[in-house]
Design brief:
The chain has about 150 residues and is of the alpha+beta class. The chain has two helices and ten strands. Strands 1, 2, 3, 4, 5, 6, 7, 8, 9 and 10 form a ten-stranded antiparallel sheet that branches.
């Protein structure tokens, strides 16, 4: 083995080692970013961003619903019924760290608050024993791209 051949082997081996080290360093960070969070952590991810809500099986009578939580405790809600207009409501976090919406229009009031889970850009709502999974597709868009 020549000295040049040995140097080339060290360079390739060093490059592989650096690649493995970088992957090992950043892989857990990426995995953490995709972990589901709930409670206050989930609400913190919703505030200032827009949740887009669609039926898992959309129909011609629906549109994408939207929920934009503002920092001041108000929210703009657009129902999934086609032609629904934005409504300003109030939001709060109860002592169980569930999201409560107050001031919804008649027929949409909820007696219970919702557990929110966020994983990446996916959101799941749970109210009592009922879950949005399989019924609604909820994704989180950064900021307020729809001007709510």
């Amino acid at each position: 083995m020549t000295v040049e051949h040995a140097r080339r082997g060290w360079r390739i081996g060093g490059l592989v080692a650096v690649t493995v080290l970088v992957w090992a360093w950043f892989a857990p960070v990426h995995a953490q970013a995709q972990s589901a969070v709930s409670g206050r952590q989930a609400i913190d991810q919703l505030v200032g961003n827009t949740a887009i809500v669609a039926l898992a099986a959309p129909s011609k009578d629906t549109q994408d619903g939207k929920l934009y939580l503002r920092h001041d405790g108000t929210a703009v809600w657009v129902n999934i019924e086609r032609g629904a207009q934005p409504v300003v409501v109030n939001w709060r976090l109860n002592d169980r760290e569930e999201l409560c919406l107050d001031g919804l229009p008649k027929g949409f009031q909820m007696d219970e608050c919702a557990v929110i889970e966020v994983s990446g850009d996916r959101v799941v709502l749970r109210v009592g024993a009922t879950s949005s999974e399989g019924h609604l597709v909820i994704r989180l868009e950064p900021g307020n791209p729809h001007g709510l």
